[in-house]
Amino acid sequence: MRPAPEPAARLAAERAATAERVAALAAQVDALAEQQALTTHDDEHDPEGVTIGFERAQILGLLAGARDEIAALVRAASRLAAGTYGRCLNCGCEIPDTRLEALPAAETCLDCTGKPRRRR
Question: What are the contacts of 87-96 at 24+ separation with CB within 8 A?
Fold first, then answer.
């Protein structure tokens, strides 16, 4: 079994992968917009499947989620630089390495997941 990458490398790799996903989703949104501009049929009543509008909304939702993930990774990198990475923002306890390996931008421990975050 390989050792887990260092937090900085893990965060950088996750941010690069997420940035690629953002670019791919943005390209899909652009392609749908182009497709919609070239189409003159009634998209709302197309018996062939989902509407372009529905597909666009779905992709825009995924794009927003990916952008939120990049913001979370940026916050995680800031915590790493400040020396607080791996500490729960709610209770201050250590976040287990297994959780950080699965979710490098995790801000809370398992006990605090789902609880409202305290203001500090």
Answer: 88/112, 89/117, 89/118, 89/120, 90/115, 90/117, 90/118
